[in-house]
Specification:
7-stranded mixed beta sheet, globular, S-adenosyl-L-methionine, SAM-dependent_MTases_sf, transferase, Rossmann fold, DNA polymerase, domain 1, SAM-dep_MeTrfase_MraW_recog, Ribosomal RNA small subunit methyltransferase H, about 350 residues, about 15% strand, 15 helices, 2 domains
Length: about 350
């Protein structure tokens, strides 16, 4: 069934407009048109991108990963009409090869990664991802495990708080904000996003607050990344995802902030470059590029996409195609013992 409808899943469909869906489908098409193709949606969310793939390519199977059990449940309901063409798995995207091994899938033809916080997490006020509404300081993408943003704010040393804000939020007033947090928690532990917003606003000079958007935006980004170890997971996930690709397969990544996009750019550039020393007269096959860049630099949303989906404003999309197997000296070590 190419175009199933599922009234019970309208909630997820209405709450989530997938970013650059048509462009993602266009970039993936040469790989997914192969009979028996399998794609991994590494950041399933509410299933918008996966639904687009399943509708457009009626022979494709999609394995959807997400660290958020609520996302898996909502997406699975939305995608139930596609039957066994969709498999949802509760996992972080750096576990991609482990998941595929468990499913007896040796390689896939496509990988899609839509990074950052999902529509589900932003829209669920009680998750604490948004600085626009007061909520508990949680920010966990998997709310079943791990420390919360409140734990970070109330237990980290001042210098470590400043490092997190500076490194992950690129916040130039990180020391001032960290000092204000430590001073406030000496009276009572921080528990609500509203408290944090007020602290950040007071710590940033008035002139700086007048430009650059909401003054707490960078602090909330930094805390979210720290709580969920996002950049550590992404650093592992990018090479793992390339290794999961069959020759001719394609990987498409959508990033929403400069730290993520820089990591994607570097990972793709590594695979698309000759790895031999520059003075070698002949480049051995084992040092030839194993990726081909499909996009020229990072693509951004056009006016039509921005009008349709305001959350696409900061997206940077990159894609690459697998040309050959990765040379041994660049291949990531396996995550599991043999």
């Amino acid at each position: 069934m190419d175009t199933p409808t599922n009234p019970d899943a309208r909630g997820a469909a209405e709450r989530h407009v997938p970013v650059l869906l048509e462009r993602c489908l266009e970039l993936l098409a040469p790989a997914l048109e192969v009979e028996g193709a399998v794609m991994v949606d590494s950041t399933l969310g509410m299933g918008g991108h996966t639904e687009g793939v399943l509708r457009r390519f009626p022979h494709v199977r999609v394995v959807g990963l997400d660290r958020d059990p609520q996302a898996i449940a909502l997406a699975s309901e939305r995608l139930a009409p596609f039957g066994d063409r969709f498999t949802g798995v509760h996992a972080v995207y750096d576990e991609i090869r482990d998941v595929l091994a468990d499913l007896s899938i040796p390689a896939v033809q496509g990988v899609l990664m839509d990074l950052g916080v999902s529509s589900l997490q932003l829209d669920e006020v009680e998750r604490g991802f948004s600085y626009a509404q007061d909520a508990p300081l949680d920010m966990r993408m998997d709310a079943t495990t791990g420390p919360t943003a409140a734990d970070v704010l109330n237990t980290y040393e001042e210098r470590d708080l400043a490092r997190v804000l500076r490194t992950y939020g690129e916040e130039r007033f990180a020391p001032r904000i960290a000092r204000a947090i430590v001073r406030a928690r000496a009276t009572a532990p921080l528990a609500r996003t509203g408290e944090l917003v007020d602290l950040v606003r007071a710590a940033i000079p008035a002139a700086a607050r007048a430009t650059g958007g909401h003054p707490a935006k960078r602090t909330f980004q930094a805390l979210r990344i720290e709580v969920n170890h996002e950049l550590d997971a992404l650093a592992r996930a990018l090479p793992e995802s390339v290794e999961a690709l069959a020759v001719g397969g394609r990987i498409v990544v959508e990033a929403y902030q400069s730290l993520e996009d820089r990591m994607v750019k570097q990972a793709f550039a590594l695979g698309a470059s000759v790895s031999a020393p520059p003075d070698l007269p002949v480049v051995p096959d084992t040092h030839q590029p194993y990726l081909r860049l499909v996009t020229r630099g990072a693509e951004e949303a056009d006016e039509a996409e921005l009008a349709r989906n305001p959350r696409s404003q900061s997206v940077r999309l990159r894609a690459a195609e697998r040309l050959r197997t990765t040379p041994d000296h660049l291949r990531p070590a396996p995550r599991r013992a043999a």
